[in-house]
Amino acid sequence: MKKYIPSQIESKWQKEWRENQLYLSDLSDDKLKYYVLVELPYTSGDLHMGHWFTFTMGDVLARFKRGQGFNVLFPNGFDAFGLPAENAAIKRGIHPRDWTYKNMERMKDQFDTMGTAIDWTKTMMACDPKYYKWNQWIFLKMLEKGLAYRGKLLSNWCPKDQTVLANENVEDGKCWRCGAKVVQKEIDQWLFKIIDYADQLIWQEPPQAAWPKPLRVGQNDWIGRSEGLILDFDGIKVFTTKPETTDGATFLVLAPEHPLVGKLTANKQKDDVESYISRIKSKSELERKENKEKTGVFTGSNVLNPVSGKKIPVWVADYVLMGYGTGAIMAVPYADERDRQFAKEFKLPIIKTSFKARPAGQKQTQYHLHDWSISRQRYWGTPIPIIYCDNCGTVPVPEEDLPVELPYKVDYAPQGKAPLATAEDWVNTQCPKCKGKAKREVETMDTFVDSAWYFFRYLDPENDKEIFDKKVVDAWMPLEIYIGGPEHTLGHALYSRFFTKFFKQLGLIDFDEYAQKRIHHGTILGPDGARMSKSRGNVVNPDDQVKKYGADSIRLYLMFLGPFDIVTPWSPEGINGIYRFLQRIWNLPEKLTINDERLTMNDLQIMHKTIKKVTEDLDSVKFNTAIAGLMEWLNYLSKKEKISEEEYKTFLLLLSPFAPHITEELWQLINGKWKMENGKWKDKKFSIHKHSWPQFDNKFLEEEEVFIAVQVNGKVRDSLLIQKDIVSNKETVEKIALESPKVQKFIEGKSVKKTVYVQGRIISFVI
RNA sequence: GCCGAGGUGGUGAAACGGUAUACACGCAGCCCUCAGAAGGCUGUGAGCGCAAGCUCGUGGAGGUUCAAAUCCUCUCCUCGGCACCA
């Protein structure tokens, strides 16, 4: 018995595959295309177990489909812009660009150690001007179509760092960097008008593409379309979805930020209202969200309820949000729980509504979704291609001047203004219109812009004339399967759909959804069952595991753990078990006989059954049961004295997507020796990964005899071995079943009222 | 509170309405060994029994069906998302 030592074979084959360019895809051939995509990694520095999990899935599918004769594209790139790079760079005193490029190199090497069949000639890096030029181009197109605009938006604001923070950079209501309490502030910023696409982004039933239901429901809820009326109460406009309850409206409530608050406040209420508003404004976002108790103050003004004809008071309260509807509501405490709480708290009247009111109003559709703020007062991102001129105002950078390159020499440490403002040579420029002195926009784009369309660019990454070649994209999109995380449901997965619909409007593409299928992968937790994190010290480092067990063991272990969406701990014993499985395969050649091809019916049946199982399971993305099928077959083969070349090769082929290195090594034992010249393959097709996928033959799948369970009153009492040729004959099967002594025992002395026979499965007697 | 996904052995998990627990981990016994490691064989849902076998069993309670982990109703729990959206 030889010991299986993965380090002796894995890097050897990785080098061989790379040098022979085994995984290049020819995009000009699109007859049988298969485009598999995994969400691109962030350039954090090291691949973690999550990357291994998701990229192994993509890799298994890519290899399987390639074997089936598909022209497969399995690309990858890097999400290389963003705050963590800046932060790490500030901490370590390295320039964000140098830090990022170093990480990308390292991560590419780590992808190699995983043995992925990634075609690295179809790639992108968000921080490469070749790529972000087209972010800028998209921005200009948005501007042209009226979909990009400068607007004021209530945002998370860190008063210490003087910057807007994305929601995900607010931790427990505090700035993730300095810990200062985040406040809500109106900030002037660039926005994309995603609201214009809200209706198109709503998922219909049945869905236009096979995306996960939680994503479809989540996105629809997030878009939050509701239809109602705008009603006018003496000049105060309110939005309601239940105009029929207007007769029960006993007061009005304005959001604290509502522009009419000042005008409506009576002199004697002025102090009360002002102190209430300043109290609310001083609260952090978190405090406002957490506190569900109703607070508010009377303005001193009254308005007329047009339906009841009564004067009703106008209040200010923070349970009404400025960001939704008109920022003012009519309160119907009889019909609405929140209004009722407020009415009780402040002793306001609650009167019954008839639900038959028909007030005059204007039809209005409201959305929970807000326009997408893309401005970041940060350095490490795509510069927004805008120039401010004293004479001409806001001037877009002309297309032919793109890309606006991010300057290298910048003081990117936070100092209360956008870092780009410190690059004075860069900021001061010429107005494209009047040629006079002008200044560049110093904000950069949200990195979610980068990832909203990268999968288009993989198809034509070097194109500097246009964003992509329409012909190639027409042929290769929509992609077949997109593997990603459920945490992107409301961010990336929505933005990328928005861009797709925008591209269609521009005439760049002809389809509505960019992925035919999306699946949400699970999470590998630490051995202690908690999310892996450095601070917990429960991180399982893939590099260490590679040294110990090899890449094939990790890949196989991750795929065998459970379904692709499993959330489960890493098990040190589990991976050891998989290593033992590979060790047994490593010794298969000991049983191999080349010139003895006699296979029994049993041998053939289990072989073809396994081919069928692995093939069908992979087609339905059930990696774990496919591997279980291979284990069963190996258990069978292990009991045999000798195994034939056909069995050996078929087994290796079926295993090869999961464990590409060991299968290549063992394959070469019988195939490779005389196909190599000077240490190079004469022809790449002699790699196991260029061999075609095994086919199963139905004639070996029909069992000679089958077990049929016999039930009496719903309980299994016996199991009969029935010959194939009498399985379809109900009377005969029934007769045999009734003769069984075990069955007799339960039927004796009683009469059979009913018999149900499911062919080849079960026969059921009711007595 | 609302929405979504789930609850099956000691553990990760299998199972077109048709013999629940495949496959693997762990554990136990035996073989091999000076010994250990590695490997091999056997057993492993619970209860009763020497055994054949019987009874119970997929969070809980009902229901539909010859037959339910699977379908229906109610309920409890876990995880994820959203959350004063008028």
Shape: globular
The radius of gyration is: 33 Å
End-to-end span in angstroms? 59 Å
Uncertain spans, ≥5 residues at pLDDT below 50?
Answer: none
CATH class of the domain at 226-366: Alpha Beta
> Order of strands in the sheet with the most strands?
2-1-22-23
Number of strands: 33
Percent strand equals: 15-25%
CATH topology of the domain at 226-366: Isoleucyl-tRNA Synthetase, domain 2
Q: Tell me about the biggest sheet?
A: 4 strands, parallel
Query: Which structural category do the helix and sheet elements fall into?
Result: alpha+beta
Helical coverage, percent range: 25-40%
Tell me about this structure.
There is one protein chain. The longest helix has 19 residues, at about 50-65. A hairpin with a 2-residue loop joins strand 5 (about 170) and strand 6. Among the domains are: about 225-365, Alpha-Beta Complex (Isoleucyl-tRNA Synthetase, domain 2), CATH 3.90.740.10; about 565-695, Isoleucyl-tRNA Synthetase, Domain 1, CATH 1.10.730.10; about 705-765, Ubiquitin-like (UB roll) (Roll), CATH 3.10.20. The two termini are about 60 Å apart. The model has no long low-confidence stretch (mean pLDDT about 90). It is built from 25 helices and 33 strands. The strands form 11 sheets. A 4-stranded parallel β-sheet has the order 2-1-22-23, with helices on one face. A 4-stranded antiparallel β-sheet has the order 4-3-7-15. It has a 4-stranded mixed β-sheet with strand order 11-12-10-13. The chain is α+β, with helices and mostly antiparallel strands. Helix 20 (about 600-620) packs parallel to helix 22. About 35% of the residues lie in helices and about 20% in strands. It binds one RNA strand of 86 nucleotides through helix 7, strand 9, strand 13, helix 11 and strand 25.
